[in-house]
Structure formats: C-alpha cells, structure tokens
Amino acid sequence: MSGPLSLLEIQSTLEIIGLIGLKYGRLNSLGKYGAFMARQRRDIGKKRREQIVEAAVAVIAAEGLQNLSLSAIEKRASMSRGQLTYYYKTKDEILLAVFDRMIDLMHRQHQAGEMWDGQPMPSKGWERFQTFLELFLLHPPVVPEFHALQYTFLSQIGHRDDLRRRLADLYDTWRTRLADDLYDVLVASGKSHGSARTLATLIQGMLHGLAMQREADPSAFDPREMLAMCRDLLSGYLGNHQPEAGKLSPHRAAVNMRGKPKAGAS
Fold first, then answer.
1. Which domain holds residue 72?
2. 92 shares a domain with 128
3. Whole-angstrom distance, CA of residue 261 vs CA of residue 122
4. How many domains does the chain have?
5. Do 45 and 87 form a contact (C-beta atoms < 8 A)?
6. Which of 25, 50, 126, 255 is most solvent-facing, going by the fewest CB within 10 Å?
7. What is the CATH number of the domain that holds 156?
8. Residue 20: inside a domain
9. How far from chain centre, in Å, is Cα 31?
10. Are 129 and 181 in contact (CB under 8 A)?
11. 8-44: per-residue pLDDT in tens?
C-alpha cells in the first residue's frame, strides 16, 4: 500500500491536469473557430453563386440566351474561369440555377398576391383566372428570358431527365393553382364529365401553344380577338358564369396600363 502523495507528486499531478485542461480548451477554441470559418465559407459560396446567376440573367436579358457563355458570365460577374467553375462546373448548371431563380421569383410574387409583372392580382377564383388571361394575352411577357429557357429545356427533355422533372414540377404547380381557381365555377356549371384539373390541363395547353406562336411571330394573332375567342370557348363549356366577351374583368377594368387604379374605381 502506497503512502500519501508527496508535495512534488501533488504539484506534478496538478500540472498534468492543468495541461490537459489547457489542451482541451485550446482544441475546443479551435473547433469553434473551425465552425466559424465553415460558416464564412458557406456564406461566401452562397454570395458567389448568386453573383454568377445574376450575371447570367443579365447576359441573357441584354444579349439573348444564344449569346450566353462562360466567358460572358465571367466578364459580367468579374470572376476568373477558375472561380466560376468552382461553383458551377458547366453552363448547363448555371442555366438550371437561373431557371430555379426565375421560378422562385414567380412563386414569391404569387404568395405576395402579384403576377410576374408586378400587377396586383385577386386572391383566387374565377376573377383571378380572368385577370391572368387578360395579362397573358394583352401584354408581352415581362420576363422573356424565362420563356427562352423553357423552350431550351423542352428541346432537351428526351435525354435530360433533370430538365424534364423541373418542367413537370412547374407545370403541375400551375395546373394545381389553375384548377383551384376553376373548381367553383365548374361545379356551378353542372359539368360532371370533367374535373377542374382536366380543364386546367386543357387551358394550360392552349395558352402554352399561344405563347409559342407569339414567341415565333408576335403578329400571329390579335390579342383582344384571341381573348374574346378564349372566353367564348370557355363560356360554351361552363355556361353563363363569365363576363361578357368584349369586356375586361371587373378587377382588370379598374387598373390602367401602369397598374394604377383609375379615378373613381373601387
């Protein structure tokens, strides 16, 4: 049995304990520093990716999708090729990020009660659909870059499943919202052989085709004549639940071309 520790042994033990505590504290501090630096790197990475996407959008808006290149993005973002490809390996990755950014913007505007061009929108229902139809047919697209990207993606869905999925999710979201707007008026019409989603799919296909024709030839049809015809077609299916064909919706009639209510409009 050993005797009591000597003063020297006690002092040595305390020093060892102190060194262990010092080492642990230093490692703990280093761990906190490492976590801080990791957060900094993530923040910088997020900022750089946003800069690259914004530069790509600017190039597309100014020069067209056909002139988008890594060199053009580098110049616009003031980055080297190494910096650019560190965050996005290929131009296709940048295009996907641009597409997602535009979709996110439209979703945010929808949640805020606006369309993509900043016009105020009714919250839901038939009036909302009428306003959307008028904006779609009577005004040129405010974000033509989105349509160019959409058609580029459509041309590649045969061999790019990632592009197909993105478009499928986007179209499904639009169909769902349109079906919600059409449900009540469809029920009121007494139609029993077609769901609101099926009607929404038909309308979506019709508008998509019109958009493609307008993109190829801006003078392909008269917008107001087409608006009246779309209303007539829907009126024939849904019955007398729509505004007269020659008039704008009550909401839209109170909004001038700049989106400001006319005098006396409620």
1. 42-102
2. no
3. 14
4. 2
5. yes
6. 25
7. 1.10.357.10
8. no
9. 38
10. yes
11. 555 555 544 554 554 455 545 555 555 555 565 667 8
At position 89, the amino acid (one-letter code) is K
For the chain, the straight-line distance linking the first and the last C-alpha, in angstroms and rounded, comes to 99
User: Which range (55-59, 164-168, 191-195) has the least confidence?
Assistant: 191-195
Regarding whether 128 and 73 lie in a shared domain, the answer is no
CA 169 – CA 259 distance, rounded (Å): 30
Buried b (16+ CB within 10 A) or exposed e, 198-217: ebbbebeeebeebbeebeee
Q: Are residues 240 and 209 in the same domain?
A: yes
Q: How far is CA 250 from CA 26, 183, 189, 208, 242, in A?
A: 70, 20, 21, 25, 11
Looking at the domain assignment, is residue 83 inside a domain? Answer: yes
In a domain, 18, yes or no: no
Q: Are residues 52 and 135 in the same domain?
A: no
Mean pLDDT of the chain: 75
**Which residue carries 């979709």 as its tokens?**
103
pTM (2 d.p.): 0.63
How many CA atoms are closer than 13 Å to the CA of 101, on its beta-carbon side? 19
d(CA 53, CA 108): 18
Q: Are residues 77 and 139 in the same domain?
A: no
Q: How many CB atoms lie within 10 A of CB 227?
A: 20
CB 166 within 8 A of CB 99: yes
What distance in Å separates the CA atoms of residue 158 and residue 164, rounded to the nearest whole number? 8
One DSSP character per residue, 75-109 reads HHHT--HHHHHHH-SSHHHHHHHHHHHHHHHHHHH
Cβ neighbours of residue 52 under 8 Å, at least 6 residues apart? Answer: 73, 77, 79, 84, 87, 88, 94, 97
